[in-house]
């Protein structure tokens, strides 16, 4: 049997102790500048370490990032009878960790400043995690007991994307390899979808996804081979701009070599810094793996939906796409900054198919060790085949656009379940109002937030005896 049974709303056991432990340890790692979750915060951590930026300045940036992600993405897809997103834990602990004092020139146990920072991290991070688990559990119970129950309908937010996620590789092919290639990919996926339907296979969208992904990999390998052949056939000197005065002077070449050596030495030094803190990084990874497998947190809304209905392999495949899209960026920032990414999207890929949370914890812990020791190796591969990074960048755009449209449709479906045709009209109106207001709400979250607003309105009307 793959994965674990999912109970919704998330049960207080094991959610509360897991959330508390993850919150406490992740806050400690952020406080010590070891591991950070948000990709926008990680690049400024060296400035905090060197003293170029104060903790107050970094905390201000972190708070802005955390607030935007929590209310506009993490929370709307974490309420009701769904698996909540891990963003709610780690985005907040990023802010708590950078806000608390720390003397990074000394060991964590040395000096009152460090001891205060560690103790505060454990208490505040743990309290945030435990409180979050309690709040989400009882909020879902409350939503289910309203005059117009909302908890069950929140699952509709992600239903369209669950059916359309095969478009991730299709749109990636279209953006990177052109419209004609994208249309071929869509056509192939459609044929596979119909064949799977005819054969009565479960979830035709999964088989369509597999076909599109395979085609994308074929394009990627062909591009990599063509790029490698071109570099082999052209003499090395032809790849460089000719100098007007002939060959470049020796001192210029030596400077370039010195810069490359300095950069390599810096990368190696940063990776050594991460390795020194590997034990705690591995423990946090194990806790995350257990939580993913137990179904009390998820990395994204639609893999959460798939896993909740026990479609374990499709959920892992979705996360594999996320990993491909984000891994180059996360590994690069880790090597450049000396601060590891708290999550690399590979953890759910490994954790979800495991038979129980204990095995998942061990497997993800091993994965994190392998990731850390392969940082420089993977960066070398990315530099050797830059098309991997280019396709990954395009894939992020494709994923976000499918989510944006799919979640808008999902919000309309949920609003229709709660308020009929008026609910759909309200979500569409909210979309245009948001555009007119210059998008104060993240478009990816607009559908869910508008639908929840519809749910509030219909319950207020129901309380005073009015029904739509």
Any chance you could write out the topology, listing elements then pairs?
Blueprint lengths: L11 H20 L3 E2 L8 H6 L4 H20 L12 H13 L12 H33 L14 H6 L2 H11 L1 H20 L5 H30 L16 H27 L1 H17 L6 H8 L3 H26 L2 E2 L4 H6 L5 H17 L1 H10 L1 H51 L6 H21 L5
Parallel strand pairs: 1-2
Helix pairs in contact: 1-4, 1-5, 1-11, 3-4, 4-5, 7-8, 7-9, 7-17, 8-9, 10-13, 11-15, 12-13, 13-16, 13-17, 16-17, 17-18
Structure notes:
It is a single chain. The chain has 468 residues and is an all-alpha fold. It has a domain at 12-155 and 255-384. The protein is 73% helix and 1% strand. The chain is built from 18 helices and 2 strands. It has helices at residues 12-31, 45-50, 55-74, 87-99, 112-144, 159-164, 167-177, 179-198, 204-233, 250-276, 278-294, 301-308, 312-337, 346-351, 357-373, 375-384, 386-436, 443-463, and strands at 35-36, 340-341. Strands 1-2 form a two-stranded parallel ribbon. The longest helix is centred in the C-terminal third of the chain and has 51 residues, at 386-436. The protein is globular, with a radius of gyration of 24 Å. It starts with 11 loop residues before the first helix and ends in a 5-residue tail after the last helix. Residues 233-248 have low confidence and may be disordered.
């Amino acid at each position: 049997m793959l994965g674990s049974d999912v109970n919704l709303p998330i049960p207080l056991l094991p959610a509360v102790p897991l959330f508390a432990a993850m919150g406490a340890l992740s806050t400690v790692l952020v406080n010590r500048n070891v591991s950070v979750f948000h990709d926008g915060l990680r690049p400024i951590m060296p400035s905090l370490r060197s003293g170029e930026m104060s903790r107050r300045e970094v905390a201000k940036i972190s708070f802005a990032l955390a607030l935007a992600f929590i209310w506009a993405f993490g929370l709307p897809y974490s309420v009701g009878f769904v698996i909540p997103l891990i963003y709610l834990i780690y985005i907040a602990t990023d802010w708590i960790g950078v806000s608390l004092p720390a003397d990074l020139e000394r060991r964590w146990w040395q000096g009152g400043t460090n001891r205060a920072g560690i103790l505060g991290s454990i208490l505040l991070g743990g309290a945030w995690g435990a409180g979050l688990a309690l709040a989400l559990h009882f909020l879902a119970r409350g939503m289910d007991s309203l005059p117009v129950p909302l908890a069950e309908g929140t699952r509709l937010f992600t239903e369209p994307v669950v059916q359309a996620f095969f478009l991730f590789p299709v749109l990636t092919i279209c953006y990177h390899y052109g419209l004609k290639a994208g249309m071929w990919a869509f056509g192939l996926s459609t044929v596979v979808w119909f064949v799977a339907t005819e054969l009565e296979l479960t979830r035709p969208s999964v088989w369509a996804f597999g076909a599109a992904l395979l085609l994308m990999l074929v394009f990627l390998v062909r591009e990599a081979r063509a790029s490698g052949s071109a570099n082999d056939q052209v003499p090395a000197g032809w790849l460089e701009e000719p100098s007007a005065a002939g060959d470049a002077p020796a001192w210029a070449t030596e400077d370039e070599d010195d810069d490359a050596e300095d950069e390599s030495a810096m990368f190696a030094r940063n990776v050594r810094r991460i390795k020194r803190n590997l034990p705690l990084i591995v423990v946090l990874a194990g806790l995350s793996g257990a939580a993913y497998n137990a179904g009390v947190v998820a990395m994204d809304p639609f893999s959460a939906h798939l896993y909740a209905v026990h479609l374990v392999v499709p959920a892992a495949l979705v996360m594999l796409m996320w990993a491909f899209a984000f891994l180059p960026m996360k590994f690069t920032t880790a090597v450049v900054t000396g601060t590891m990414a708290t999550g690399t999207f590979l953890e759910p890929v490994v954790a979800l198919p495991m038979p129980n949370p204990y095995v998942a914890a061990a497997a993800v812990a091993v994965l994190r060790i392998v990731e850390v020791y392969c940082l420089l190796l993977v960066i070398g591969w990315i530099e050797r085949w830059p098309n991997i990074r280019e396709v990954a960048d395009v894939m992020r755009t494709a994923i976000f656009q499918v989510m944006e449209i799919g979640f808008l449709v999902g919000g309309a479906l949920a609003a229709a379940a709660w308020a009929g045709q008026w609910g759909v009209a309200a979500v569409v109106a909210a979309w245009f109002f948001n555009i007119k207001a210059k998008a104060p709400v993240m478009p990816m979250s607009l559908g869910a937030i508008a639908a929840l607003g519809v749910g509030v309105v219909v319950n207020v009307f129901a309380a005073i005896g009015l029904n739509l």
